[in-house]
Design brief:
globular, odorant binding, 8 helices, PBP/GOBP, General odorant-binding protein 99a, single chain, two-stranded antiparallel sheet, signal, mainly alpha
Length: 148
């Protein structure tokens, strides 16, 4: 009977692992997919010529259209949920080709707060983007995705 209980315990653990993996079928986005998301969000939140110049270097001013655009991008990208926040594991996986995993993990861990301040969603996302923009992620990520 002890073997029976061990087997039963093993099956429960295996089922939990399979279920957890099934719930997160998100995949790393290619450069084309990221740029398609950016284009979609630009249709919803168009940038003027000045903002387009800022986007070329992924350094955005604090403006309503920018914050709403960023919410759109991060949400459609699947790395942010307005209810639960940033999905750190997905962000780390997405940026792995850009820097060493440990560096990315540290940057995302520092920047992806839980919105303890109770900020509106757009301010929360903008805060994250500003934090990440001070790291080595944006220039290296731009090499992969290119300009729109």
């Amino acid at each position: 009977t002890q073997t029976y209980f061990k087997m039963k315990y093993f099956i429960v653990i295996l089922a939990a692992v399979v279920l957890a993996q099934a719930q997160d079928d998100w995949k790393i986005k290619s450069a084309n997919e990221v740029n398609d998301i950016r284009r979609e969000c630009h249709k919803e939140h168009p940038f003027n010529e000045e903002l387009q110049k800022h986007e070329e270097v992924l350094r955005f001013p604090d403006e309503d259209v920018v914050r709403n655009y960023e919410v759109c991008v991060f949400t459609k990208w699947g790395v942010f949920d307005p209810e639960t926040g940033f999905k750190k594991d997905r962000l780390v996986r997405q940026f792995e080709p850009v820097l060493k995993r440990e560096e990315i993990d540290e940057i995302i861990g520092r920047c992806a707060d839980k919105n303890e301040q109770g900020s509106p969603v757009d301010v929360w996302v903008y805060r994250f983007q500003q934090c990440v923009s001070r790291s080595e992620i944006p220039p290296n990520f731009l090499k992969i995705i290119g300009k729109l």
